[in-house]
Give the backbone structure.
Amino acid sequence: GAPAPDCTLILLVDDGMAGTRAKCRWKMGKQAGLPLPTRHSGSVRYSVSCGWMYDYLGLFRIRRRWRDTGRLLVLPVPQMPDPAPNLERLQVRAYRPLPGGGFSEVYELRDYQPGDSLRDFNWKLTAKMDKPIVREPQISNQGAVVLSMDLMGTPEELDHTLDCAVGVSQWLIRQGVAHEVRWFSGSCRQVYLVAEPEDVRRLTQALCMSEQGKLPATSLVKDASWHYHVSPGTGGEA
């Protein structure tokens, strides 16, 4: 069949993380790929503003408008920051009864209540107190494990922040620790729960589509039993 005629498009390219917009000309079939900024992590949205189609001899052209849009995610490369996080500071804040009962090395002694199982009786203390005493199994009531970050700075600093944030999230999941990731996209607070490896992939996409934003001091994590914060251009601070 005959080759397709030449077509020139005017593209509008929005770099979400940098907050910039550019206009470029692209000749379909003559340029190997779209001229999109892919050096830094983030989301690049492109749309066709207008274009021209030419006849086979290139003598005449027809102006056309398209409404096509697309989005390209440039994903970060996970890495561990320096200094690396330390889970030794993860503390149990309190305990609560184990739902459904069962065995636990940690338990609380209390008076018998109707419905308690005979296996939970503390027979020595029951005989000594002359009233039924049972062991109530306890489970740790751990505070939130939080990873936070400031999405601010130069493109290079943002790359480093995203690389370290995703790297720490992957590391926590490998340690079996579910956690929350908190950041600001523009003026909107974002909280993302990561409980399994697939959540890290979705987190990475959400971070790439965010705008620059700084976590206010009032939003720092008083409810956390463990906290690691990644700052622009630095490894992080616990």
Notes: The longest helix spans residues 155-174. The helical segments are 123-129, 155-174, 197-208. Residues 15 and 213 are 15 Å apart (CA to CA).
